[in-house]
Structures are given as structure tokens and as C-alpha cells.
Amino acid sequence: MVEQNNNKEVMYNEDDLRQLLIDENIDSFREIFLELHPYDQAQFYEKVGPDIRKTIYQFLSPQEMALIFEAIELEDEEYEKFLYEMDTAYGAEMLSYMYTDDVVDVLNELDEEHRESYLEMMDSETVEEINELLAYEEYTAGAIMTTEYVSILENSTVRSAMTVLRNEAPNAETIYYVFVVDDNHRLTGVISLRDLIVSDEDTLIHDIMNERVVSVKVTDDQEEVAQIMKDYNFLAIPVVGQNREMHGIITVDDIIDVIDEEASDDYSKLAGVSDIDDIDAGPFKAAKKRLPWLIMLLFLGMLTASLMAQFEATLDKVAMLALFIPLISGTSGNSGTQALAVAVRGIATGEIDEKSKAKMILREIMTGLITGIVCGIFVIGIIFFWKHTLIVGLLVGAAICCSILVATIAGSFIPLLIHKLGVDPAVASGPFITTLNDVTSILIYLGLATTFLGQLS
Amino acid sequence: MVEQNNNKEVMYNEDDLRQLLIDENIDSFREIFLELHPYDQAQFYEKVGPDIRKTIYQFLSPQEMALIFEAIELEDEEYEKFLYEMDTAYGAEMLSYMYTDDVVDVLNELDEEHRESYLEMMDSETVEEINELLAYEEYTAGAIMTTEYVSILENSTVRSAMTVLRNEAPNAETIYYVFVVDDNHRLTGVISLRDLIVSDEDTLIHDIMNERVVSVKVTDDQEEVAQIMKDYNFLAIPVVGQNREMHGIITVDDIIDVIDEEASDDYSKLAGVSDIDDIDAGPFKAAKKRLPWLIMLLFLGMLTASLMAQFEATLDKVAMLALFIPLISGTSGNSGTQALAVAVRGIATGEIDEKSKAKMILREIMTGLITGIVCGIFVIGIIFFWKHTLIVGLLVGAAICCSILVATIAGSFIPLLIHKLGVDPAVASGPFITTLNDVTSILIYLGLATTFLGQLS
């Protein structure tokens, strides 16, 4: 996509850059390469082979390399591969120049032994910060925050705040917010750079800071943090501990990744793939990701078949009944997935909470009734005009109506139940609930048919 | 969720605020209310009834109200409702204080006549800007950009840039980037506030600006813009015309909305709901959104039934065959949805382009073969141990293997085809492709069964 953008034609020529590396033309390479945005640097770095990357390590300092590693977007296991290409000392130095949240992402992918060997080579203050972050549970605010932020004391002046900012600018992840703390490093306020630059230099921070600072706890779920930042349009949010002591900040770029990740996650679970596989993955890797679902569902499908076997006698007598099995199970699956999707997204975005739960279930029961009756009537009509039989039509119509009602209630109730148990409701995903609805809808259909068998023959 | 956050307990008491309005205690109300973040103000504003909102309009100036209206998150049609509660002159003045991108969002929801009446009351310069934005097609960069940004000429100094920033700070949507333009207002560079505050005041902007500025065109798709901002971690991106003349900027908060919207959109299409209905919608509204899909799929299901009718004789002879119909159509539907989800997300994120298309199809064919063979073998084994028949097992296994292969190819090929035709590939959504795969898989199954019928009885 990037290549299609005409505004970027000035950017760089990949082949030229590669040639400069092959020719070991260090000066020209650095001149062109270091002008690039870190994202473009990372794209180039990922694309060239390991031999050429070796030359890049020679030509760039660990500090310059750190910017690339922060901008890189890799499958988790690839970080390891790239890191092990480097000399360990070089790698450790590079890591020490990265923002702590990014270092933690990388170190989380390494085995214990390698992680330790890198940490041993880094200075003790950084190691302490990193170890603190490594200790937080995955998907919490603590795990995605960074410790590089700018803080000042309440009784500073705007002038001294600006001096602090100028000094911290090269290191802090954002300098657009300055966090105000007391002597115990407890968060008491926030002030934006926007406010600072329009204020008189002698003003006390205490007089212009915003005391109603919104913060999150280190243990808060990342999805909750994302929701707050989205609602308030923040560029960064402070992360505090039990006594409001500042631990770090989370910046908007990390939140975009969270939003993207969670949405993809819900989406791929609805589709029954453990995650949306990247396009470069080979067929074996793709098959490996998809097979667990397919095989699990095969077994559930066998369950459906064995339940149907109980009605084999009925099917044997009226073969026409079999014609409508896909229709009934399909319709019930579709309405269940619709209800499920609404419930899963509602829970994920926080729109459905304790209070609105009962209301939602009630709404879904009504919706299931309405859609069930409408679809049932349609089916009776169609079958009557097609097969000229009212009794089969009534049977199929009644089965469809009941199945839609049951599927709609299940689709909204099951995610709520799973959420209550503290599990991500998206695991009650599409294929799973579809198979469940298959079973119930066929039971309803063939159960009704067996009961009224006398009328059918 | 917000209520659960202990850090926010200091925020405000809704009932107290409401009481202040009922008591017409303007001073206390303003003192507390104006301290709140606009998002909290908007939440309160939305919750109270129209009578109390009338008092809010009396107590707040149009400028103060503009902040609330920008922060509000409404269903499209609700903007209209709130706006019409206000006096027209008050509403028009409020609109003129809002950022142009937000005004355009509101005006887009009004009918021609009302829109004109508001525009007539606003000053001509603002109206011109708004009309320019209203003319851009929906979902393009032009339609979501704002025209409130800070720009300076190349030959300015850092000092004069800072002066411009201080003056523009109250109006510009972001002051963290300053865009550098030439005499014809063509974009030539960008400089961040971060760079400005660490530079010497007499430095020329031209010497420190970044000339490799990444920009988008007014006609670019909003999804492309989101991808670029996400990749580069920008807080804002400039939007230019044909000759690189600056038209506006898009800020990160708007991009978060785009990412959210597009992901929800793909998700709801996979689930077969036109959009994820909001929790407050009644059952009739919800049913209305879901029924079109269900009924369309009912007709397709009838098509499946009428195709199966061709094989009624076969089903009549071997009733056992009917037992495996849900299994086969379910498995084929599942594998088709998996392939579809990967393709739709790949196209949406730009990972799949012209070059990687052929590679992806090839990968999917291989993946379909592998998953098909593995599932087929499983099924043969299960049926052999359950029913002690090899021939039915072979038949069902072969049908499953073929159906998975066909479904996987269809799941990846159809979205590519639809995308090629210039339509959003997500319309080839889950239920649709599932039904298609139902038909083909049952045809394969019953076709094979009829061919080998001699062996079956």
C-alpha cells in the first residue's frame, strides 16, 4: 500500500540501499538510511537477508539499531531470530537504548537463559525497571506501560518544567504531558505542553495543573485502558499503584495496537481461527492453525450424527424430511451467530454491564420470537407452494421458529455466562455456537417429526 | 466500566449536578461542571432528560457547549435530536466554535433545509471551509480531516514559530506538529513541538524541519490513512491536494475511531448483522436489522433443499446418509469461513495486494488439501469404529475432503474477486459463504453417494 502512495515516491530506493551495503559504502548508506523514518528503516531491515543484516549491525550503532527494533512489527518468535543474529554485547546495548515497554516485549519472547544473559550485560537501574515490568501479568496496564515519562513537583515553575522537558525530550516516550507528583511520587496532577507554552514562565505548576487527572491501575485490563483513552482522546495516560504512586504511562500508539489486536482477536475467534495467520505463513503453518478447530468441530458434528441416528427410523419413513435439515440447522446457526456477535462486542466495549444484562437477555428473547415467527411463516408459505403439503411446511416452520428462538437466547446468554466465569466471551465463538445450535435445532425438528409421524406418511 | 475505576471516585456526583440544575443554581453548577473533562460533561449531558438539557443551554455559552458536542458519542440520528432542542441561533453559534471535521459530521445528519438554515447564520469563512469538507466523498481522507492546523513558512525562525503556536494553541486541533509550507501553501516539511522546544530560538525552520514528510491525498481511503498512521505512530498526518497544497490534517483520535469502525464493520458482516446494534435498541429494531440476512439465507437454504430433492431417491434407499449431512455441510462451512476471515482481514489491512494475491491463492489450495486430507482420514476412522462400515466412511471422508478443499478456495478467492470489482470484500460475509458451501458440499456428497449407490445397499 505504501508503495502506491505517490506522495512517498521521494522516499528511498530499496535496491540502491542494498547495493550500498554490499559495496560496504558506509558513509553513503548512513547518509540515506538515517534520514528515513524508523518504520521505513524497519521495513528495509526485515526484508533484506541475514547476510546483509550483518553488515547493517556493523554500520549502525546499538542506539540507532534500537529505533529500528522499536518500529519493527514481527510475529513473536521472529524477535528472537533477529536478536540472535547480533553479537550478544551489541544486542544488550541495543536493548538498553529501547523504551522499557518494547524491551519487555522482546525479552518475553526469549527463554530464561538467554534473557538472563542479556540482563546481566545491562546497567542495574534499567534491569530493575525491566524486571518490574516483566512481573506484571500479560494484558494488564502494567505489562504495556513504559517507565520513560516526564514528572515534576507541584511547586516548580513553568520555567523549570520547560527545562526538565528539554532535558528529557530525547528519552521520554512523550513530552506532551508532564505528570505532577508529590514528595512521595504520588500522582497529583497533569499539565500538557500546550498549557505550558502559553503560560507565563514564573507561574507555579500547582496553579495551572489539572488536578482531575484520569489514571489507571497497574492491574487494570488493557482493554479497559483502551476504552478510557478512546473516550477521553488522551495521547497518554498515567499508570499508578495502590497509593496513587506513579509507575509509568501508556501512550496512544500502544493503545492503537491493543484496539487492533482485540478486534482481530474477536474476529478470528468468530471465524474459528486461533489468530488471523499472516500472509507469509506457509500452507503447513496455516493448516496447523486451522485444524484444531476443524477437528474439534468434526467430533461435535459426529455427536450431531449420533443424535440423529436415534431418529433413523423416522428418516427412513419420510425421506423428504432430510431435505430441510441443512435449512433448519443453517438458519438456527445464523441467528445464533448474530446474537453472539452483538453480545461479544457489547461485552468487549463495555456497553453491556451488570445493569444492562437482564435488559439485553429480555431484548434477545423478544428479538428471537419476532425473527422466529417471521421466518417460520415464510417457510410454511414457501413449502406449501413448492411441495403442496401443509403438514411438512408446518413442521419445518415450527422447527425453524423454535430453533431461532433457542439459538438467539443461547447466542446472547452463553457469552454472558462465560464472561461471568472470568473467561473471554469470544471463545464461545461462531463455529462453536453454530454446532451447538445444529444439535438443538435438529433435535427439535426430528423430535417434532417423530411425534407427528402419524400425520406425515 | 468507568464507574468501577476507583481512581475516578473524586470525579463528580451525577445527582448533585442534576439537583443544581433543577435549583437553577448557575454558579455552583458552572464551577463543578466546567472542571470536568469534556467526555464526562458529554456523558452527563446525554443522560439527563430534555428538560434539564434546556437549563444546560441557558447556563453554558455556545462555546462551552461546543466542547461537549465534540466529545459526544451518538448514533447518527441523535445529533439531530439534540441540535433541534436548542435555539437555532445558539446551535449555529455552537457549531461555529467546533472543529470543522466535527461540524461536518453533525451537518451530514441534517436534511438540506435545516443544514442551510444553520450555515446561513455562520460567518462566510467558516461556511466556505465547511462546504469544502462536505463535498468530499464519505470514507476519504478529505471527509475526516480538520482544517484547524498550524502552518508556517520555511524561512521563519524557531522563535516566530513558537509565537504562532502560542497564538494558535486555543484553536488548532493539535499543536504538536507544525507544518511547513511554501508561498503557494504547498507542504514542504514538518517539525514537531518536541524539536522546536529543544532548538535555539534563532534557528531557521528550514534548517531543522523534516523534509521527508509523509502525507496523504484528500481522495485516499480512510482505511489506508489509518494503516499509515498506525505504522508510523503519527499523532497527526497532513492531507494534501494534487499539487501538494495543504488542505488539512487528520489526528490520531479520529484514526482510532476509523480503526474501531472498520474492525466492527468486518466483524458484523462476518456475523451477518448489518451493524452491531446498540444495546439500547428495542427488539423490533434489532429484529429489523437481522431479518434481511436471515430471510435471504432462508431462500438460499431452500435452494439447497431443492437441490437435495434431486437425490431424494438415494436418501430414500439409504437413510443413514442423511445422518452425515450436517457434519459435512458444517465442516465445509467452517473451513470456508476460516479462509474468508484471513482473506478479508488481509485485504482490509493491505497485507494482500496484487503481488501477493497469486501466492495466497496457492497457499490456500495447499492448506485446503492438507486440512481436507487430515479431516477426511479422521472421519473414515470414526465412522469405521462407530458403524463398522468402511464404504460409508470412505464416502463421507471423500466428501469432506473435497468440500474442505472447495470451501477453502472459495473462501479466499471470492473476497479477492469482489475486491477486484471495487466492492468491500466483507460483503462475502460468513453466512453467505457458509450457505454457498452448504450447497456445494451436499452436491458433492450426494453426487458421490448416488454414483456408488450399488455398493451402499
From TrEMBL, chains A, B:
PROSITE patterns: CBS. One of its GO terms (cellular component) is plasma membrane. Residues 145-208, 209-267 form the CBS domain. It is found in: Cell membrane; Membrane. Keywords: CBS domain, Cell membrane, Magnesium, Membrane, Metal-binding, Transmembrane, Transmembrane helix, Transport. One of its GO terms (molecular function) is metal ion binding. Homodimer. Belongs to the SLC41A transporter family. This is Magnesium transporter MgtE. It comes from Lysinibacillus telephonicus. The lineage of its organism: Bacteria, Bacillati, Bacillota, Bacilli, Bacillales.
